[in-house]
Records
---
Amino acid sequence: MIAPMDDIDRIMSVMDAAFPAEFGEAWNRRQVTDALVVGNCRYGLIAPDGSADFGSQTNTAGFFLGRSILDEEELLLFAIAPAHRRQGLGHKLLQRFILEARANGISRIFLEMRRNNPASFLYASHGFQEIGVRPAYYRTPAGTRIDAISQELILSD
Ligand SMILES: CC(C)(COP(=O)(O)OP(=O)(O)OC[C@H]1O[C@@H](n2cnc3c(N)ncnc32)[C@H](O)[C@@H]1OP(=O)(O)O)[C@@H](O)C(=O)NCCC(=O)NCCS
């Protein structure tokens, strides 16, 4: 999926604000651009009013980035900018990601997140279930090790 430069700017504006620096989760512009050039990645954006249609809106509230292989898709990145949190936009964008995955013929969504990320409440409320733990998988710049939690959502017909 080739993204127009405007959309890469939108993704990066959220990326730079959304991910706590100490966990090193944010991707740089090159990583995002390369992922979207490969062809099996897709992204979605959400505006502050909850729509996907930006029109003249200049602010971006959030984005997702997913990568599919056959009928499985990994949710690589998912974020809502701090200024727009706790207003239901995360729910709305995740719902859209799941609906689009289903429409694309995906039967299993997979993701990995650091332990104790509040995003786990969001994922659980959409039916994601924990399927594994990679102990001490992430290392913060300060040297702390944090488990990675794998989750999946099975999409039935
Ligand atoms: C996780 C994130 C996407 C949630 O976005 P949001 O727009 O605030 O989410 P919503 O307002 O739709 O809330 C969704 C649910 O998430 C949970 N939640 C979100 N933030 C929370 C927090 N700080 N503490 C506890 N629960 C939280 C709640 O269960 C909430 O549902 P509720 O309001 O009905 O109780 C956002 O906090 C974020 O971008 N975090 C940084 C990036 C990140 O960690 N992404 C996930 C990587 S795997």
---
Amino acid sequence: MSAAYPVHLTVNDNTNVTIEISPALSVDEVRAALYAAAGYAPSADLVIRLSRPNGVLLPVGPHIPANSADSRYILDVKPGLGALSATGSSGSGALGNALDVVTALLDKVTLLKDKMTVISLDPKEPPTTRKLRDALPPAERTIFDKAVTEHLKHPTFDIWQWEEPAMVDLLVHMFLEFKLLEHFKIDEGVLRSFLESVRRSYNFNPFHNFRHCFCVTQMMYGLLHVTGVHEKLTPLEKLTLLVSCIGHDLDHPGFNNAYQVNASTELSLLYNDISPLENHHAAVLFTILRSPETNVLKPLNDADYKECRKQIIGCILATDMAKHGELMLRFKGYAEAGFSFDDAAHRSLLLQMITKCADISNEVRPKQISEPWVDNLLEEFFTQSDREKAEGLPFAPFMDRQKVTKSGAQVGFIQFVMIPLFELVAKVLPNMEEPVITPIRKALEYYKALGAGPTA
Ligand SMILES: [Zn+2]
């Protein structure tokens, strides 16, 4: 028998477990060992996700690379969509069989308990994690007060007061309010399964998490309403914007493109260093959309589907800030020559610019709502630059905890990125000044008053 070796894991964010695997094990046996490490019996309704600490996914199989206890892989085990659906495929008899498999397997796979390890093999007591605790029954939707749904249309909406299930319901509301389910005959259960699947595919990064996804979508929805441009957009374009914003950072590992490229991660190899993250977000989105039970685009006819897919990919790729200058220049050209809603290229770029605005829109929000995001973003940046230093990789000064101050980071970003972007879009969309641009200018004054730091 080939030599077994230890694989060190952090399971569902809270438990350290070390398992021993052997190259002689089959894929199913390794999978079952990982389920067991997470305290589950194997089941068709479990989704397993194994990644390196930097979030890069590892294949589940007998050739998981060996690692050390101080660079544990992250193991995330969560119910699949079958568990959410009343017509899910798991029969109750599967559980007994699964336990037998685990019991048999434990003879082959040694589970070494770390100091803090708790291993449970009782399938009725799965480890509690945020992802699992928030599972939603598909048919129950919160009906929101009119004051809430009206406020939802405005950039001042308080995005902190909602838990994840409520954010899902608010997203459902946006589809309903645009009458997209009616128009395209999209099943509400499919929409909810889609959103649930999306929610579970966002990681727990300080910044690039499901709440950021909700914020971006809500700001896009708010921008459409305050400018009234939703009345000029087709249902397909509104669907495009909603799905793009919802999917735009899916499975973000918390380390940016520069890191992906410099560290030669799997993502940078897969996408040849070309917007590796944005390509990944779009690919994860369309993977979710490939399953019939989560495919909100299924009812579209072929021509609409093709158009929608093309536009969504365009919107998501446009969120790579490396493309910022080029997109600004093109949009400026359109705006100066006379923006035309009759021109498909103009409309398409407008969707991308709206997505970009929404993505970096935190400073449009009132200070008490926007400020915590700055801390979260800096935390994510600092974690990255710490790792880059540790790995001997180049690191950006704007991510260096020794060099950056909150005010310094914000002044430069607001002044040189946000204001020019929003002012340019305001040349095409009406009514941006008071609800959108004035708050950004106030934020600039606020951070200037706090004192410009070294990067300003
Ligand atoms: Zn984003």
